[in-house]
Amino acid sequence: MTVPTTDAPLLAAEDLTKVFGATQALSGASLRVYAGEVLALMGPSGSGKSTLLHCLAGIVAPDAGRVSYAGRDLFAGSDAERSALRRTDFGFVFQFGQLVPELTCLENVALPLRLAGTRRKEAARRAAALLARLEVAEVADKRPGEASGGQGQRVAVARALVTGPKVIFADEPTGALDSLNGERVMQLFVTAARETGAAVVLVTHEARVAAYSDREVVVRDGKVRAPEYAR
Ligand SMILES: Nc1ncnc2c1ncn2[C@@H]1O[C@H](COP(=O)(O)OP(=O)(O)OP(=O)(O)O)[C@@H](O)[C@H]1O
Asked: Ligand 1 mean position to 201 CA, how many Å?
């Protein structure tokens, strides 16, 4: 897609700093994310990518600076308000799917809908449709431990998409997969996200994963480098 230049961003980080003990993880990081775009955060290990992602997602509060979502200060409200927003508007995919081992894959995907009050049958119907969309219908009744790594990541992607979030945060979503599996998961992930209009903020080391994005920015020494691209 073409990234708009004048529209207001959906999500914006302004001049974030974050210190963990003696480590300065972020030192003036600014970034804008526009509705519907797929944005890759690249950069060396320890440069602050995950910390920036966690601040954008309202999980980690910056020491200074501001994160705004849909024009509102994300950290102005209570923890409960932020948790509620994360459930309704955000989806998450991590390196190791982090599925609930006791539930079937279908139940894992249906879980965010159940937590939001959707009836069991409707939640199961939507979960099954997404598993089929991600080409893993065959693991619906299996537990995550019985699925392969690639299948598990597709289930994790389905779970992140099922509530129709506005933004999906993905931290090395294919990092544990071989390159063929990783590419297929990215292809399915990005296509499905585009179909629902979700923006994706993706942390990756790998150029071939970043190649699925609309825009790449580099995080280095706790800053988003080349701010003209960070807009
Ligand atoms: N919870 C924490 N406690 C202490 N130090 C932390 C914490 N989270 C991050 N750090 C440190 O902050 C710095 C930035 O970490 P971050 O995980 O954001 O980098 P990254 O670019 O995502 O790295 P990688 O690519 O290796 O995952 C690192 O030096 C890291 O060790």
From this structure: 17
Q: Which two tokens stand for residue 14?
A: 């302004």
Q: Is the dihedral of CA 103, 108, 114, 119 positive or negative?
A: negative
Find the 115 Cα to ligand 1 centroid distance in Å: 31
CB contact set of 5 (below 8 Å; sequence gap of 6+)? 231
Residues 6+ apart with CB under 8 A from 121: none
Q: Within 6 Å (CB) of ligand 1, which residues are found?
A: 20-21, 23, 25, 43, 45-51
Whole-model pTM: value is 0.91
Domains and CATH numbers, the chain: 11-225 (3.40.50.300)
Residue 4 reports pLDDT greater than 60: no
- Mapping DSSP onto H, E and C, the string for 114-162 reads HHCCCCHHHHHHHHHHHHHHCCCHHHCCCCHHHCCHHHHHHHHHHHHHC
Complex confidence, ipTM: 0.96
Who has greater pLDDT, 37 or 94? Answer: 37
* Residue located nearest, by CA, to atom 27 of ligand 1: 45
Per-residue pLDDT tens for 173-199? 888 888 888 888 899 899 988 999 999
Q: What's residue 228's pLDDT?
A: 47
- Residue that the structure tokens 């509705």 belong to: 35
SS3 per residue for 62-82: CCEEEEEECCEECCCCCHHHH
